[in-house]
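ok so i was messing around last nite and threw this chain in just to see what happens. nothing serious, just curious
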Amino acid sequence: MPILEMYRKTQERIAEACLRSGRDPGDVMLLAVSKTKPDEAIMELYDAGHRDFGENYVQELRGKHERLPADIRWHMIGHLQRNKVKYIADFVAMIHSVDSPELARTIEKEAAKHDRVIPVLIEVNVAGEETKFGVSPEEAVQLAEVIGTLPHVRLEGLMTSAPPVEDPSANRPVFRELRQLSVDMNLKNHNNYKVDFLSMGMSSDFEVAVEEGSACVRVGTSVFGEREYSRT
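result:
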C-alpha cells in the first residue's frame, strides 16, 4: 500500500478513536517514526504537509536533519546516551526518553550552549519490563523535581512503551496508569513543571492509547510499512 494511503488511514483511525472517547483529533499528534526509512519516504509525508518525525538513533537523526528540510520537527524517541546529547541539542524538537537526573543535567548543559530550551518527556517503564528503559512511576516524581530546576529543559509530560501484545486492549491498564500518574503529579501543584503531554501508543495499540488520553502516538509500521533493518 502506498505510504500516503497508509498515512491517511492512520489519521482516520486516530480520528475514530478520538470520536469514541469524546476527544478532538487535533489534540493528538501523529509522530511518524522514520527509523531506517529513506529520505524519499520521509519527503512523501513532508510534501503532504507532515512535519513531526521520530528517530531512535542519534547518528541517523543528525544525518536526516542535515539533509532534509529545516522546518521538520525531529523528535528523539530512543534511548539517549549522555555523550550523544551534544549532537542533537541545537535542533531537536523534543526528547521523549529522559530516564535519569544525569541525562537531564547533560541536556541542560548542552541546551545552554545553544541558548535554547529543550522540551522533554520522562520515560516511564509502567509495566516494569526488564528489557525496557525508563524509570518507575515513583522515580518519575523525583526526576520531575530535578528537571523542574533546570532553566534550559522544559518538562512537558511522560512517555511509555507498552509491552507487545496480541490484543491491543491488553495494554489499556498501562496507558491508564501513565495518565493517572500525570494527574497525580500535576496535583502536587509544582510551579516549575506540568506533565500534560502523554506520548504513548505505537502501531500495534495506538487506538487504545488515544482512547486513554495519549497526546502523541509514535507510529512507524502503520505509516511506512515494515522496517528495513538493513539500513540501521
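not much to say yet. Residues 3-20 form the longest helix (18 residues).
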